[in-house]
Design goal:
It is built from 19 helices and no strands. It is mainly α.
């Protein structure tokens, strides 16, 4: 079920919400948590029935491994490390088999000029996310940061449907303590208003922006033949995909936060206007924030971080991003995408290092006009670098991605009539980037404006509650309209569902 589908919004979600709150009131919080875990399994089963048992087996294995690590750590700190190594290796091997086996076999066949042995493997949806979530849990167990003895709560932690398929990548400590609060199991008008506001904004981004950009990007990228396209068409396709993935992932992230708020649980934000970034370091603090946190905490720091000198630091950055690119998909184009961002980060950190003294001493660089110009140039350079990398992320072949980038930066006239874009595409692209670069993001609008307003309504008595209910009704009505718009188009999965 897509978050934007009628089946999800009008059947699944109302049933799950109703039974969750009613069950908590009549039978207790334990039953409500168990129901939510079961409903999350059903949500996954609709997507991937054949791999629901794989998800259940992964949960059982990691729950037992986590308990063993926690028991060993309680007896003697650090003694659970052998169990941790075996459990993490088992998770990574499972992920490698389902996601990378054919990629490795095809790469070996290409290197040895032999026919490729292709296995009949279908990628289980969400496997990267529930695997990384559980690896983080095992490592946190080893460090004594978490302790979970309730198997139902652990299953809920992993399968909780707002984050199961495409994140955010969660820490146990930032979600499960909320399920121990009695208030989580009581329906709240305020939480419903804020939650549905996030859902409405996320749906608008997905339905009105991302799915509108998709046809322009797909017309070029799905052709896989760039010999007849012009420089303008190449840029139109690259920029359209840049906007598509922005609004698609931003929309999903908003909906995940909003859906979770309906159950009284706040998920961490995963997206914060990344195209406003003035450098690549800042971009990765804003794009897929929980994955960046995971890569930093469990890979970059484990490799040594910045503790062993600048050369080792740059190597660790490049390695982390290379593996981060491979995490997104079993393809050399994803490897190149990760390598590009690793190179960007190395250059960015090196630039910061060599210019830090100049910036601190120069009075010219502190002048308002010079600073404004510098910010504009930094934003433009960062955005162009990101757009170039997105070409490799979207295109299926290295040769195709390389050819498209060549056509972007070396003028080519159009040699044919297909593919053609209407002139309005540039108006649409300009409007999309105006929203991405100038508008306040969802959490700024909702946390900064709507949440305080709703709080004042709640404090003002019956009249405020009635106005709050009216506001909630308007939000739900807007979601219904967006759902009908979505149903009138081809079904479009969120891009990150593929990872």
């Amino acid at each position: 079920m897509l978050f934007t589908s009628a089946d999800f919004l009008f059947i699944y979600l109302p049933i799950v919400l109703g039974v969750y709150f009613l069950g908590a009131r009549l039978a207790g919080r334990g039953l409500a948590a168990a129901w939510l875990a079961l409903a999350s399994f059903v949500f996954y089963g609709v997507w991937s029935p054949r791999y629901t048992l794989l998800l259940a087996a992964s949960i059982a294995f990691n729950y037992i491994a986590g308990a063993m690590i926690q028991n060993a750590t309680e007896r003697r700190p650090g003694s659970g490390r052998p169990i941790l190594v075996v459990a993490v290796a088992a998770n990574l091997l499972t992920l490698a088999y389902f996601k990378y086996a054919n990629f490795f076999l095809e790469s070996i066949a290409f290197a040895t000029s032999r026919p490729a042995l292709v296995l009949d493997i279908i990628l289980p949806i969400g496997i990267s996310f529930f695997t990384f979530t559980q690896i983080a849990y095992l490592v946190d167990s080893h460090h004594g940061k978490v302790r979970e003895r309730n198997p139902i709560h652990y299953a809920l932690f992993v399968t909780y449907f707002p984050h199961l398929i495409a994140g955010p990548v969660l820490h146990h400590a930032e979600m499960m303590p909320q399920f121990r609060r009695p208030s989580t199991y009581v329906a709240s008008l305020d939480s419903f208003t804020i939650g549905f506001a996030f859902v409405a904004m996320g749906m608008a981004k997905k339905v009105l922006f991302a799915d509108s950009a998709a046809p322009y990007a797909n017309e070029i990228f799905d052709a896989h033949d760039f010999s007849a396209i012009s420089t303008g068409q190449a840029w139109a396709a690259a920029l359209a995909y840049t906007l598509q993935i922005y609004f698609d992932f931003s929309g999903y992230s908003d909906m995940a936060v909003g859906l979770s708020l309906l159950f009284g649980v706040r998920l961490p934000y995963n997206f914060a206007s990344p195209y406003k970034s003035l450098n690549i370091v800042d971009f990765w603090r804003r794009w897929h924030m929980t994955l960046s946190r995971f890569l930093r905490d469990y890979l970059y720091i484990s490799l040594g971080g910045n503790r062993k000198g600048p050369t080792r630091r740059y190597a660790n950055l490049a390695t982390t991003m290379l593996l981060g690119g491979l995490w997104h998909g079993a393809s050399w184009t994803f490897v190149v995408w990760g390598a590009l961002h690793g190179m960007y980060l190395v250059i960015n950190h090196f630039w910061i290092h060599v210019t830090s003294g100049i910036r601190s001493r120069s009075t010219l660089l502190r002048r308002p006009r010079v600073r404004a110009l510098g910010r504009a140039l930094s934003l433009a350079l960062t955005l162009v670098s990101v757009v170039v990398a997105w070409v490799f992320f979207r295109e299926e072949s290295l040769a195709g991605a390389t050819e498209l980038v060549k056509r972007m930066f070396w003028f080519h006239p159009a040699y044919g009539t297909d593919p053609t874009f209407p002139p309005t595409i540039w108006i649409w692209i300009a409007a999309g980037f105006a929203v991405a670069l100038l508008a306040r993001n969802s959490q700024e609008l909702i946390d900064g404006c709507l949440s305080p307003f709703v709080a004042r309504l709640s404090a003002s008595g019956l009249a405020g509650a009635m106005f709050n209910a009216l506001l909630l009704g308007m939000l739900i009505a807007s979601i219904v309209v967006l759902a009908f718009i979505s149903a009138s188009r081809d079904v479009s999965e969120f891009i990150y569902f593929n990872f």
